[in-house]
């Protein structure tokens, strides 16, 4: 993306004399479209293939030179909104493509591990991101997965410079300030050990699908229903309830739930999903 001013040759001057100009690379000025293009590129490089689906990164930390960060500060929300639309459109495009010469083979679904994208901008305060560059660190989910530490990309052809410790610290502090966490759900599915933070008053849990979105998608076999269960929080009291909406059942601390009936959810509980996955629920006070 760097452009160069043509220099370093002798040009005609007065009375046949000439002059020389020094060659200097001139980096294109960073803008919203460049950042969005780089987010899509990062997502493409960060795909994580599993048995029945392909996970794409959905958490992005975007580092800019302080001058670029300040210049774009007033439109970061707009860039973030357009970037989310561009990333979702790319997922739709991938899911719309049918595999060539694989007649009868089921296409893997491209999806993300959260209910939405998380994109945050940071000014590089350590002097490692040059002007006109954008360095992006992404993850599959809120907690980095074993064997998958995320993808790091830059616009300029160079090694990434922002440390993983810095990214983790910035991400934790920003998320802690942005969302109130009501509860945490820990579990393990086909994509590895996971941790999901409940920040809304109702969440749906299940396998989901191309035409059915759930807040907490579980990557596993079809013993788990596309929408398997729901958790609901009473804003007035903070108390949670759980309800089963599945074919193969949901168990709360070893007791099978009646389908469609809401049951009080203790502050700490184990929720068995179709004898396939165990969710460890813990309320945050």
Describe the protein in words.
The chain is α+β, with helices and mostly antiparallel strands and 285 residues long. The chain folds into two domains: 32-178, 2-Layer Sandwich (hypothetical protein PF0899 fold), CATH 3.30.2320; 183-283, Tumour Suppressor Smad4 (Sandwich), CATH 2.60.200. The chain is built from four helices and 22 strands. The protein has helices spanning 32-45, 66-72, 76-96, 164-178, and strands at residues 2-4, 11-12, 18-19, 25-27, 48-49, 53-55, 59-64, 109-111, 118-123, 134-139, 151-154, 183-189, 192-198, 202-206, 216-217, 229-233, 240-244, 250-252, 255-256, 262-265, 268-273, 277-283. The protein has a six-stranded antiparallel sheet with strand order 13-12-22-21-18-19, with no helix packed on it. A five-stranded mixed sheet has the order 15-14-16-17-20, with no helix packed on it. The protein has a four-stranded mixed sheet with strand order 9-7-10-11, with helices on both faces. A hairpin with a 3-residue loop joins strand 21 and strand 22. The protein is globular and about 60 Å long. The model is unreliable at 1-25 (pLDDT under 50).
CATH class of the largest domain: Alpha Beta
Low-confidence stretches: 1-25
What is the global morphology? globular
Q: What percent of residues are in strands?
A: 25-35%
Number of strands: 22
Give Rg in angstroms. 24 Å
What is the CATH homology-level superfamily of the largest domain?
Answer: FhaA, phosphopeptide-binding domain (DUF3662)
Average pLDDT over all residues = 84
Number of helices: 4
Across the major sheet, the strand order is 13-12-22-21-18-19
H and E order: EEEEHEEEHHEEEEHEEEEEEEEEEE
The level of helicity is 10-25%
CATH topology of the largest domain: hypothetical protein PF0899 fold
Q: In this structure, how is the largest beta sheet organized?
A: 6 strands, antiparallel
> Helices and strands: which structural class?
alpha+beta
Judging by the overall fold, what is the CATH architecture of the largest domain?
2-Layer Sandwich
Alpha carbon gap, first and last residue: 49 Å
Number of domains: 2
């Amino acid at each position: 993306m760097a452009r160069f001013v043509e220099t370093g040759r002798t040009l005609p001057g007065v009375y046949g004399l000439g002059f020389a100009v020094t060659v200097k690379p001139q980096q294109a000025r960073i803008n919203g479209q460049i950042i969005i293009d780089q987010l899509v590129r990062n997502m493409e490089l960060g795909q994580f293939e599993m048995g029945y689906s392909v996970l794409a990164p959905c958490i992005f930390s975007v580092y800019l030179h302080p001058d670029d960060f300040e210049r774009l500060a007033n439109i970061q929300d707009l860039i973030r909104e357009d970037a989310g639309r561009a990333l979702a459109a790319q997922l739709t495009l991938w899911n719309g493509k049918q595999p060539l010469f694989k007649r009868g083979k089921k296409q893997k679904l491209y999806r993300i591990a959260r209910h939405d994208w998380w994109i945050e901008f940071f000014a590089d305060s350590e002097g490692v991101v040059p002007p006109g560059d954008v360095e992006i660190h992404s993850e599959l989910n809120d907690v980095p997965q074993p064997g998958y530490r995320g993808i790091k990309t830059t616009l300029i052809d160079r090694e990434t410079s922002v440390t993983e410790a810095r990214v983790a610290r910035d991400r934790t502090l920003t998320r802690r300030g942005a969302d109130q966490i009501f509860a945490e759900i820990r579990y393990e599915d086909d994509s590895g050990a996971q941790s999901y933070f409940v920040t809304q008053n109702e969440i749906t849990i299940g396998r989901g699908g191309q035409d059915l979105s759930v807040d907490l998608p579980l990557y596993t076999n079809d013993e788990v229903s596309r929408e398997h269960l729901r958790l609901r929080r009473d804003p007035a009291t903070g108390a949670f309830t759980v309800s089963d909406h599945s074919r193969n059942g949901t168990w709360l601390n070893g007791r099978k739930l009646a389908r469609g009936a809401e049951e009080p959810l203790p502050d700490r509980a184990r929720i068995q999903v179709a004898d396939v996955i165990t969710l460890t629920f813990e309320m945050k006070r």
